Amino acid sequence: MPRLIALNKPFGVICQFTPEGEHPTLAGFVRVPKVYPAGRLDTDSEGLLLLTDHGPWQAQISQPRHNMSKTYWAQVEGTPVPESLARLAAGVTLNDGPTLPCQVSLIQEPAGLWLRDPPIRFRANIPTHWLEITLSEGRNRQVRRMTAAIGHPTLRLIRAAIGPWRLDGLQPGDTRELRWPDAPAPARSSARTPRPSAPGGTRRRTG
């Protein structure tokens, strides 16, 4: 049967198995053979990353045309006012065009949140707040660019959920085997099906 693995990707880890520069890779955390990331997280973003050895699942998770939602916790600089949050939810214009409407809410610091190493920069005279943002599209560094567009730069970004799957207490660097909801049996015909992208291939990053 196909495999689906959840990883809580730590800060500073690159979303590939092959070394590149001095950053640690997924190889240090994922021991399941022949699985590849379904989507990406930037090196400086944390949280839920799904990996699979089944091409159709990888495509359904990662390709924007399938509209699988992704939920993020963003720690932002300053205090967003309701008008700014409404603007963010309605869609903001970035240098690659307007974003789709999304779900945005001001939240308390997520329960059980781990310490980041290194910690974010703190300014004694500038408060920070947490936003929960749910998107159905996946542009490069989209959440960071969206919060910057309303005047609240993102200091820390954690992906909390992808579709029906959530972090649910998974600690940084830990993995969990998942089940695909209502997954059909894998095709056994000789017809070609999409294959997972090889490590180091084309990247689509959201965080």
> Could you say which overall geometry the principal axes of the C-alpha atoms support?
globular
Assign the CATH class.
Alpha Beta
Q: What is the chains' assembly state?
A: single chain
Q: Terminal Cα separation, in Å?
A: 30 Å
The share of residues in extended strands comes to: 25-35%
CA radius of gyration: 17 Å
Low-confidence stretches: 183-205
Q: What's the CATH architecture?
A: 2-Layer Sandwich
Structural class: alpha+beta
* Average predicted confidence as pLDDT: 87
Domain tally: 1
CATH fold category name: Alpha-Beta Plaits
Written as H for each helix and E for each strand, in order along the chain, the element string is EEEHEHEEEEHEEE
The CATH superfamily appears as Alpha-L RNA-binding motif
Counted by DSSP, the helix tally is 3
